[in-house]
Design brief:
It contains six helices and no strands. The protein is mostly helical and 167 residues long.
């Protein structure tokens, strides 16, 4: 059952990573277009500039769990490379359960009121000509940290399986 949970979480992380990749492509294309229009035609758009920020935020927020699933996060590999697989699994298990999951749950909890208030007032950009529905972007905060917590639990299941298998 736990391995099924881990597999599902990793499929979700893969889908988020794939989507984040497409957001990155859209971000690059939009920036390229903005530069062409600004310097070629002398025109600008607040909404398009904000869209770049939204896309950039989406890449990072939706890429968090994918990065953890691919073991792509920053760590001190100088020490880790010298450890046995068993020691690595123990450090991963403890770090995920004692640090990552509580931090994610705290972030979801602390951002819930912030996002709810944004939805309540129908928050939009403060800039004239900016994007509406800023609450949608803010909703990515608890969503992404919730997904990160799920992936951290899945990674903890994988670390525990490594320990059960003897390293």
């Amino acid at each position: 059952m736990l391995s099924g949970f881990a597999a599902l979480a990793e499929r979700i992380s893969h889908a988020c990573g794939h989507f984040a990749g497409w957001l990155a492509v859209a971000c690059v294309l939009l920036v390229f277009g903005l530069v062409l229009v600004r310097y070629g035609l002398g025109l600008g758009s607040i909404a398009a500039q904000e869209a770049v920020l939204w896309l950039h935020a989406g890449v990072f927020l939706l890429g968090l769990n994918w990065t953890l699933a691919r073991d792509g996060h920053v760590r001190v590999d100088l020490y880790r490379s010298r450890w046995s697989k068993r020691t690595q699994a123990w450090v991963d298990l403890v770090g995920l359960l004692a640090l990552v999951v509580p931090f994610c749950l705290f972030t979801v909890w602390i951002s819930a009121e912030y996002v709810a208030e944004s939805w309540r007032i129908g928050e939009s950009s403060r800039e004239p000509g900016g994007l509406p529905a800023l609450y949608l972007l803010k909703s990515l905060i608890p969503l992404s940290f919730g997904l990160l917590a799920v992936q951290a639990l899945a990674s903890a299941v994988r670390a525990a399986a490594t320990l059960r298998a003897g390293g």
